[in-house]
Structures are given as structure tokens and as C-alpha cells.
Write a structure and sequence with these properties.
118 residues; single chain; 6 helices; 3-stranded mixed β-sheet; 3 strands; mainly alpha
Length: 118
């Protein structure tokens, strides 16, 4: 099975949605001064200047975003958003502990990055 089909099946099993041309991700791209952006809110990955197929093909990027989904599940929507905002204000985006954790898992070959499937 090729990596695209494997990742696509994982995303389906986890009931994750991917939204292309997302207004939320567009705002993030402007704030971060990045051309292409993915932003996770709950169990939805919002994309700007990127498409679902490329996200699913890029295992490193997908793993990063799946860690954020795990973080949302662990803390809950409102609590995670508040913790993430506080971390970003206190330490900056790059040194935000949630971003550090996601980057640390980008090369982790462990299936589903310890995300519990429903």
C-alpha cells in the first residue's frame, strides 16, 4: 500500500477532517508570514495554499498536525486554545511547548503517533 493510501485510511479511521482554502489557515498564514499553512482546531486540519493530497503524502507534516489533534483531545478545545495562546505569548510560536512537541514527533515512525483511534 502506498503512503498516500495508508495515511488517507488513518485519517478516515480517526474521523479527522481536512479543510482546504480555510479562512482560519489564511489568517494564520498572514500572522506567521508563511505561504502555506496548516492549523488544527479540534479534529479538523485547516489548510491554506496546500491541498489534502499533499498533506497526506508528506508524512512529516501530517505527523506534526496529528500531534496537535492529540493535544486537543488531551486538553479539550477551549483549554487547549487557551494553553496554546498563553504558550505562544510567553515563549513565542517556535518555542511554544506544543509546537516543540509536534516537531519532536515529525520523524516518529510509531503508528498513529500514540493517538487513540475511536
Amino acid at each position: 500500500m502506498n503512503s498516500y493510501k495508508c495515511c488517507f485510511k488513518l485519517v478516515l479511521a480517526m474521523k479527522i477532517s481536512i479543510k482546504e482554502k480555510s479562512f482560519i489557515a489564511r489568517i494564520a498564514s498572514k500572522i506567521l508570514h508563511e505561504k502555506s499553512v496548516a492549523v488544527v482546531i479540534g479534529k479538523t486540519i485547516h489548510l491554506w495554499n496546500a491541498d489534502k493530497k499533499n498533506l497526506l503524502k508528506n508524512k512529516k507534516w501530517l505527523r506534526h498536525e496529528l500531534v496537535h489533534i492529540q493535544q486537543f483531545r488531551q486538553h479539550g478545545l477551549i483549554k487547549f486554545l487557551l494553553l496554546y495562546a498563553w504558550e505562544s505569548l510567553k515563549n513565542g510560536y517556535y518555542n511554544n511547548k506544543f509546537e516543540v512537541a509536534a516537531r519532536a514527533k515529525e520523524n516518529d515512525e510509531t503508528p498513529a503517533i500514540n493517538i487513540q483511534l475511536k
